[in-house]
Records
---
Amino acid sequence: MPFRLIYRSHNRIPADQLKSELGAIFSVARSQNKKADITGALLIDGDWFVQTLEGEESAVRALYDHIEKDKRHERLSVIDAQDVEDRVFSRWSTARVSEDGQPDIPLLMNRDKGGASPAAGRPTTPEQDAVLDRMREAAKVG
Ligand SMILES: Cc1cc2nc3c(=O)[nH]c(=O)nc-3n(C[C@H](O)[C@H](O)[C@H](O)COP(=O)(O)O)c2cc1C
């Protein structure tokens, strides 16, 4: 049974370095997480990061302990940590979920533009929507 951890943290990256630092974070996350069989998503919303990590519990907890030490964010708080029936981001080592950037969940991007094309079917699964809503809510609490 997979384990899912969702945490929120406060961004410490100066605005002029944000683009390059985020590029570096996604690049490392995608290759490292793939190796550890961890999937998930990272939302960037203004000053807040909200990240979902899914995988084997010990691997997820080890990765969280590692990420927690990163000086590019602070004030980490775990929002949820529990066993789950299934992964919801099984296709993404680290999906990018951003309100103003370029989300790389293609169908989600379509939805943000006013709905996926009929041929594309459902933009996201209800299970993904539930986790994504939770992540967006967490970023708003500020
Ligand atoms: C918000 C945020 C999310 C991150 N997510 C991941 C992640 O999912 N996987 C990962 O390997 N590193 C992630 N990192 C980067 C790690 O903290 C760390 O820099 C990276 O794993 C390289 O570690 P190393 O220099 O010890 O090899 C994240 C960093 C931040 C600030």
---
Amino acid sequence: MASTPPPPRSTRESRAQAGPPAQQPPSPQPASAQPPAPGSQAALRLANRRRVVDAVRELGAATQASIARETALAPSTVSSIVHELTACDLLAMEPEHGGRRGQRVHFSESAGYLVGVDVGHRHASVAVADLNLDVRAQRRIDLPAGHRAEDVLTGAREILDELRTSLDVPAQRILGAGLTLPAPVDAECRGLGSGAILPAWAGLDLRALATGTLGCPTVVENDANAGAVAEHALGAGRGTAHMAYLKLSHGVGAGLILGGGLYRGATGSAGEIGHVTLDERAGLCRCGNRGCLETFVSSQTVLDVVASSGRRVESVGDVVREALAGDPGCTRVITDTGRLIGGAVAQLCNAFNPELVVVGGELARAEDLLLDPVRDAVQRYAVRGCVSGLRIVTAQLGARAHLMGALIRARAETSLPV
Ligand SMILES: [Zn+2]
């Protein structure tokens, strides 16, 4: 219907239940500038400028007409504000077919930069992107098992400085950062919600530590949540209102987009699907319980099961490659894994009734070899009404999902100089 508002397209969801904004970046405004008096014309003008900037942040590159719809401001007001913000190099016009009326507005490429830091169990990636989320430089490093927060963040700062130098970007142009971790993050996006998963990172104010070490306001986020935000904004979940992102890796977790927004739950730990109990007589899980889904389907378990048959495989990628080439043992391991995951996804669907489940992580490279047994199990175990029309697909962003999610969260939380 013409009156239906457009579906959420980007980072609106990442702020819906986000923690408090990160601390303010240095403002280009003169230190002596006083905030306008409440209710004054100047205050209204500033509020409208912020609405326009937030619309560009949420919509991505957008025409002035769509910004006017998003902000409910008059087209002439939008045009005037875009002119002002273009003049001060926060926004820029992008030529598009159809002439001036079709021109899209986006952030100026030199308006500032964001940092994404994605930390896994044995690796970290650092990226520098502009405010349009175009990654300008990126580096990945290996990490030792049981790595410490201080060491990883110090290493990330060194990489950031190298990337900045290669890009000729001064430190003050870095406006904000997003740090993603493979562990539950508390509701304030400040530290870990549980010390069981990354014990060497537990009990710390990670937001303060990362902000101090990286030298810019930093928001901390669970990696599955970041993957959900990224797939929702830029990948397979575009245009959906209710979706789940499933991370299959060393750990197993889910990020939930409900009603267009990221759902964290009361303490920030929503989506810990990897710790659904399958068999409490089975092995001990790193969370302290027994027989969690993760103990049956994690990357290490997949490797251990394949190795128990006497095969030499170095990575889950090897297992996927062998399976796709027709190896019966590797195929069996992946289909069994898919069936177990599908049982847990069925419970997720019964509880949250998503329209889309996006599967990411190393195992997702097996595509339908993994997803068909997931789909079969979901249909078998879920209530029919909860999964009618449900789509289960692989992630579009692949290994970039968490890093892009970190950048999106950074952009959503960063105060921009309007
Ligand atoms: Zn567990």
